[in-house]
């Protein structure tokens, strides 16, 4: 999960984690020790993020200019453009190699400082660093939040009616448009993260979830109080199974209705889970982990 970028932290910490991994694999630094490839120690996307973004060609406005550009593209001008692209790609690859060598050198320097640390100690230090992130213990899924829509709910003590749409978080509202998020399924809560951000946009303890299930083969529905959250994902079954597992472990599975249609008014108010199942969130450096760290 570290290599795939699912543990958002600083580059300095990522380098320290890589050094601890080397200490665990090879013991003390030695020039004769086998070196794993950098991508087996450090998230590749961090290196790619250092490269300059590709330059966009300005759009051609005039139809005649577009026609001339199309004709030229098949001749000498097209060959020149192809040569420029090849040279640019070569420069980017060279820059990537330089960034990789610099990062590996920094990792090796940190590895040298770990001399005398045994493998169990290195592994414990590695996990201690990773578990500082509040998402430690959760399984993360890449999802696209397709829409957040209101659902039937009780409002102001009146009969069940369509509730008003409210943002996921007053501080970090999630808009109605589709966006890429991490859906974190933990032992005590479900959290939504913006990829790469250490703090969740919002978290829902199981007492706030009234129902969940698959709307279709690629859409997962999560009903939280007065909202239906619809996620596009290829892992609908895995998400549902994991939620069921955690609910069964808390003895609260019977209080949820996975098959309940989200848009039809219920005959009675849903029963909330005991509030003791809601985790208490503090500063993320000191927040206790939940569950186990899944690969």
From TrEMBL:
Q: Which InterPro entries match?
A: Actin_motor_Myosin, FERM/acyl-CoA-bd_prot_sf, FERM_2, FERM_central, FERM_domain, IRS_PTB, PH-like_dom_sf
User: What Pfam families is this protein classified in?
Assistant: FERM_M (PF00373), IRS (PF02174)
Q: Which domain of life is it from?
A: Eukaryota
Which residues belong to any copy of the FERM domain? 1-257
Give the region (Disordered) as residue ranges. Answer: 258-295
Task: Name the chain's protein.
Answer: Unconventional myosin-X
**What is the organism of origin for this protein?**
Aptenodytes patagonicus (King penguin)
Q: Which gene encodes it?
A: MYO10_1
